[in-house]
Design brief:
CATH architecture of the largest domain: 3-Layer(aba) Sandwich
Radius of gyration: 32 Å
Helix content: 40-55%
Number of helices: 10
Number of strands: 11
Strand content: 15-25%
Order of helices and strands: HHHEEHEHHEHEEEHEHEEEH
Length: 308
């Protein structure tokens, strides 16, 4: 028994006549009659009473009509769901972000906007460091990710800078400079830095180290950690200082003081969207558009392209 047999049966049941059903289906009456007889033979029951004026359902036919209608309705619903999947209206979107990207108001706003615009897309969210997110996007475990500065740039991925924000120096509340309004990096030449980076990899803190050296000192490193939240936990404990995006200033407000760098310091924190260049389709394509629109509202001049 095939789906077409169910459609043939329903056409005959609704028309009550083989010839009228054949006309509705766009086929000849003799082949339709043969198909109905084949269906009855396969089921082992008569589905119709034949008489000169047409056909009527037998008791078995009435039961079969209920089952056939349910199956056809289920098939139609499945086809509609698959069409929505093809349009990217249904499915699961796997998104990753770093802890510092999650701290920016942009991230929850973009996720809320996605839920509002596409309620049929379920969000699967994962937190990791930049290297882990980049590897997961490249391997297809994530559709896209929100990071700061890439630590690697595989050729099949696109890195799109959505926003830029200033960085702040995070100091323990009892630090000698806690009462200042701003700092220059050279003020910190004697301090112990807590860095968030993968050993030997470029990134936000590689830029920081290069800038320190350009200002005449090599910073003393107290610890290297995987996440900015961890670095701020250590700052709050008095273990050293850190440089973090301004959006993280709300963490440990009673134990950490956040100070801006002096105007003109060439250091900021980008918010970067990473995705597979050739696979930005379906739910991923919808999220990319929402991310760009959200960024455009927050900052009028987003930059697009591969980061240096």
């Amino acid at each position: 028994m095939e789906i077409r047999h169910l459609r043939y049966f329903m056409a005959v049941a609704e028309a009550g006549h083989m010839t009228r059903a054949a006309e509705r289906l766009g086929i000849q009456q003799p082949p339709l009659s043969l198909q109905i007889k084949a269906l009855e033979a396969a089921l082992g029951v008569a589905l119709f009473h034949r008489h000169p004026k047409g056909v009527t359902l037998t008791d078995a036919g009435r039961l079969f009509e209920i089952e056939a209608r349910q199956l056809l309705d289920d098939m139609a619903a499945m086809e509609q769901r698959m069409a929505r999947v093809a349009r990217g209206e249904l499915g699961v979107l796997h998104v990753g972000f770093t802890s510092s990207a999650a701290a920016h108001a942009f991230t929850p706003e973009a996720l809320r906007a996605c839920r509002r615009a596409w309620p049929g897309i379920a969000l699967s969210i994962r937190e990791d460091h930049a290297a882990g997110i980049t590897a997961a996007v490249e391997a297809g475990r994530l559709h896209c990710g929100l990071i700061r500065v890439p630590v690697s740039q595989p050729e099949n991925l696109t890195f799109e800078v959505l926003l830029r924000e200033p960085v702040l120096v995070a100091l323990p509340v009892d630090h000698a400079f806690a009462g200042r309004r701003s700092l220059v990096l050279s003020d910190l030449h004697e301090d112990a830095f807590i860095l968030v980076r993968q050993p030997g990899a470029p990134g936000l803190y590689a830029n920081l180290l290069a800038l320190c050296e350009a200002q005449g000192f090599r910073p003393r490193i107290a610890a290297e950690v995987e996440r900015m939240v961890t670095s701020l936990n250590l700052v709050a404990a008095g273990a050293g200082i850190a440089v973090v995006p301004a959006s993280m200033r709300g963490l440990h407000p009673h134990a950490v003081v956040y100070l801006p760098l002096a105007d003109g310091t060439p250091l900021d924190a980008p918010l970067t969207l990473v995705y597979r260049t050739a696979d930005a389709t379906g739910p991923a394509a919808h999220f990319l558009k929402i991310a760009r629109d959200t960024a455009r509202k927050a900052q009028p001049r987003p930059r697009r392209g591969r980061t240096a």
